[in-house]
């Protein structure tokens, strides 16, 4: 009796906040929180906020004691009370209360019981959604990042409990991100030490649910439990994380993704890697897309000696990412993207030819040719996808850049596969490419329903500057002995697209000259081409001339091409595509000398096109590819200057007799001096203009007026001489007159005074 009275007396002396806290716990924990007493405790905390930290500390003390004694019912009541106090109280003293709260959450997360871990996680998620009024300078979430990441990898025996633990870990990470991502006073959640834990944990769960994704029912048919899978929750969390990333944080968020795919060999499957980067590209801000592309390109460089399947996987991810990011995918480093892809295309070809990734230690790794070919086709498709996102003017520059990087045929013993043809997106702007996938003689191209627009000014400038480079590559690729049907089909497609997308009158003339040059190439015995190649070149030339003749709509031209094709159909069908570009080509063992009506005649074509206003002088000049750097000599304006190997210098000193000097041979030194001299001339011209401007700015008005008057007088004098020569009336029929100096001069009379014969008048 005395002991009970002492306890009651001591209880009455306890602080009020402790009595209020004790009263929220019922005698039986199954009865749950005493709500009436919880309201009293909440009112007390709001009335006396300075006591809030003590309330939190006491609740934490009771929770720790209950956890140790395995009284889990009271643990749940304590956490419920903490949650309600946390939601109700927003004052300056909340920080000290939060410390007690986080201490209790940490205690629960460290417990071995899954239910306690889940309970602590749920409380932390509620806390993460609260916007605090006052900042915290010393709070750390490092433990929670590590613990939640560990829960994401849970291997608990019971699959249902394992799923719950993993989902709790995912929610916990989501709560940490929400709580810290926008708080500058907290430790930066984007630091690699945190991202290296968060991102792999999310990817682990995203990958775990990948196998069952295709077998799961539709969202409308699935139950709530099936819809709330770890993979779906992970994807939402991952998207939220990426959506909150700023410009400077993209790299830290993407790098762990690349490392995870490397460590688990997930590039080779491609599917999961593509899915990850689709999530990334759709989640980040569009203006940051090029940063992801740059990281992928850098990772491709880092794996330059990895297997072809790994590199192909990275390239496939690049392809999908470029399609999503559209015009923002390339960013400011346009040419660097294509430079990297072309470099890896060249590396793949080298690996295929040498059979090793290491040129020094040949045979260190086994190269599978078919895998390298697949990689090359993937790179070509990716180049086309990137080019398709660019505006028209940049496509022209990229085309020139690619042509400068591609080696001249003959540098390698074999040509790689031409791929799927997506590299021709570069110039196919009206989807005409599928209509030229095969080479054939089309009697009426109107059935193709081609879309042809007038050539733009940018395209005219591009072709004027770089057309000869294009023609040279077409010609040299045609004469390559290893060329097969796919190569000729791509050449035909390229010629057709140039004719419709980039052709003006000058380009049409040059393309006809190239086609006739290909015919001469097939006839030449010096090239030692196989019979198939000769027939294929003849077939290519005939198919293209048939197309370009109908595009020009010159009847006489079309008639000549039609007559030659008809003659070949009767006597030499192996010169037409229908007998050459088939599975079993119908070609002779030897090719006899061709002449007459079986060949397209350059003189005839020049004559018929000249009558329609085309440049006959240009048409009559046979096309000859040049190996000089004429592209860089901007002073050369005509094809005649680029083709000619000699320059004839005419002497015009004597008006009575023309004398020609021997032709001057053009050498490399001459070209070099021409470039240097042209630069000097430009500098002199700039200096002269500067002096003229300075003179007009500083000279007296009288001097300027006198100078202009002198120039005007001189100009008028020259004009008078020209008029005297060009419009002087013919001499009078009356004969000549004699001047006072004894010289005879023709006497000019007005036209209306001249007498004409009757036959000249009507």
TrEMBL record:
Coiled coil: none annotated. Pfam families: EFR3_ARM (PF21052). Gene3D superfamilies: Leucine-rich Repeat Variant (1.25.10.10). It comes from Cyprinus carpio (Common carp). One of its GO terms (biological process) is protein localization to plasma membrane. It comes from the Eukaryota. Residues 208-221 have a biased composition (Polar residues). This is EFR3 homolog Bb (S. cerevisiae). One of its GO terms (cellular component) is plasma membrane. Signal peptide: none annotated.
